[in-house]
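URGENT: need a sanity check before tomorrow's submission.

F., can you look over the Trk system potassium uptake protein TrkA record below? I want to be sure the sequence and structure line up before it goes out.
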Amino acid sequence: MKIIILGAGQVGGTLAENLVGEKNEITVIDSDPTILRALQDRLDLQVVTGVGSHPDVLRKAGAEDADMLIAVTNSDESNMLACQVAYSLFKTPTKIARVRSEQYIIYQEQLYKQQDIPVDHIIAPEQLVTQAIKRLIDYPGALQVVEFADGQASLVAVKAYYGGLLVGHALSALKEHMPNVETRVAAIYRRGRPIRPLGTTVIEADDEVFFIAATKHIRAVMSELQKLESSYKRIMIAGGGLIGAGLAKRLEHSHNVKLIEYSPERAQYLSAHLDKTIVFSGDASDSDLLSEEGVEQVDAFIAVTNDDEANIMSAMLAKRMGAQKAMVLIQRSAYVDLVQGGEIDIAFSPQQATISALLTHVRRGDIVNVYSLRRGAAEAIEAIAHGDKNTSKVVGREIGDIKLPPGTTIGAIVREEQVIIAHSDTMIEANDHVILFLVDKKYISDVERLFQPSAFFFG
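Structure tokens as predicted:
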């Protein structure tokens, strides 16, 4: 595909890196020549310096025959205007804009139409991060939770702990422990390296285990791998920006929520607009304030300010003062691996959430969900199988007979209302939602080809 990316910041740069390896023709536009030079030194792509919404700059970037424009600058208005120009002058088929302002998101159904603002897909990073954190609150002890087929199936990453029922046992023992629950271990990471999960594989303490199950069975499977944590009730949020406020709004009717916001004006605004959340104005790394507000009673302390260092310091302090779990938002993805797993339990990057959403729209074939896992190294995909045995490489075939790329496993199939955990003799039918896990995402184009029916393919 010929793709123009507008904005060479964290998201634009990471997206370009993801797509270049997949034989796409990428051009990146940015007004900062230094950032572009650094990107071009690292990656095989074209760069254009200039304002991305200017027609001559888009023309220079090849907009006349581009398949897709992805506008991810820091300005909502620039992103939307670039989509408008690409549509009006160049008839660019697919236009995606990153939109952060709540005002533009609330009215998206009325605004984003071809005759009004021609944006085909909007990506709202703050909403994506809020949803991801909410899922971690719903499943205490999970490192990552992603949903497929409208929430019917989930892929969950957990760390196996000493004392977990399955630790020290082979994967085949899962079936004996839970005869009524179907699940499939899609991948195991041991000391940071993937190992292929076989029935004979013995789970060790500290393994990072990715498993797929019907969403209703997730907690039961988690209990096999670690001592099940009780539900979080008391939540403390540091930072009242879009993510902090959105999270408080989603949690305040089911949890006891306190929110600390540095700006007195913003704190006052939040206090008036949230129903049950108790809002304080102050510094979240002030130990006296945390002590006064009972941080030692808190089940989860979630730091989501715009400052990585402030998030890390306040979360570490909260954890040392007795908070049960510490979660932080980190903009610089290089920091994520540094801090996660010590005093900080979970670090999440808005970039990874945004990249996952963008990749869903970039993938070929009927791929309806893509999740970037393990900081971008692995991917989970939901693809819809189309065609019949004569036109498709997967429909009408048993999973054991499908030539999957190396390190790829089919974990589950969702067929209408039914979640079917994959076995080698499971047959794929037309319109099945197939959930795959890729340990190495360089094989993504092979997976895409598998799910593209062809009039010329005869099994």
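My own read: The two ends are 27 Å apart (CA to CA). The chain has 16 helices and 22 strands. If you see anything odd, call me.
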